[in-house]
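Table 4 source record.
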Amino acid sequence: MKMKKVMALVATLTMAFSITACGSSGSKAEEQTPSTTTTETAATDGQSDNTAASGDSLQPEEGASLVVWESKEERSFTDEIAKQFTEKYNVPVKIEEVAATDQVTKLSQDGPSGLAADIVMFPHDNLGRAAAAGLLLANDAFKDETVKNNTEASIQGVTYDGVLYGYPRAAETYALYYNKSLVKEAPKTFDDVIAFGKTFTDKAKKKYGIMWETGNMYFNYPFIATTGGYIFGKDGTDKDDIGLNSEGAVEGLKTYVQLKEILPVKSGDISPDIKRSLFNAGDVAMDINGPWELAGYKQALGDSLGVAPIPTIGGKAAISFSGIKAWYVNSFTQYPNAAQLFANFASSKDAQLLLNTKVGSIPTNKEALESDQIKNDPYISAFAEQTKNSQPMPSIPEMGNVWSPVNAALPEIWDNNADPKAAMDKAAQQIKDLNNGATK
């Protein structure tokens, strides 16, 4: 056990040095300091209910107290769930605000010195570098419960190198927004989208049947994956098996190319701001986008706003990218039992429904997804339905080598009529070269 700690410390210090050496001098210094705005839930006198969740015998250490890192945007949820946890387990919890995307970097710097939070939360595509550096404890005590209760995609997202690390709490993917005053019924297929677009699109008037970020791989993954393409093999873990230029990927990109007829706009001229403005004004009838746009679109369109799963491609349900937000336990925590109990408690069915109430998140818990709270929400239920046909982004470090080559290939296809096979062959080769260079 001591040797594992030493190895984890060495790996972490090496990673921290690398990050410090390569990072910019401006923003990184600010990232190292969490917000001074904190909340501490005091232990409730007389509480002695230390029975672990699901009948497990795990109990918090005597005198345990916890620090949790949470993003500012979802702080309201964690304040409430921490209060509930303290009432149940008599363990004080302190919340510190750290942006989700900054937490792995900060954990690598502060973990070995004991300054980091006991429980952290970040998107699953950061898992690979955190696990490889020995920063996280595996989810062992609640493994069976976690796997049983959550969607397959979320479990895949929080697993690295065959080890379950995370406690999933929310999924994030995109779906089809549509203006009901323009589109009476959500299209079931992209053939339906094209048929509608031919009657609505008018380039001279800047009116388009559908718009999405055509040069961004994140939003175009359905045209790669639905018909059999993929990024890395073995559920995103084999960097040497690249499927972006496979027969299945090229087949799906045929639909992508066909859509140019109803969206005659250069990929570089489609930005989130431009698209948002056109959709709010009724000049774009449909938009492929994520739940982060929901509040603004509801305000602009009111009852005319509809959300539906992405239309089928090649007769198959569209496969979108998903990101999984999850809790993780710091491997350097002084209170591993209490930390695991919190991660499990704060990712339960009830916790995920509370998170949905507070911030509009999409649960990963299967019972929560089937609850009336989710099913009766016409917007969230559509995103939830899409998550069932989503794939989590690969979490291995080599995923960082994928974005630039593919985001260069897509505009070549869209703007310059490049052959999809040739463009994706080039992207795949660039990714291989980057992977090999990164592992030498």
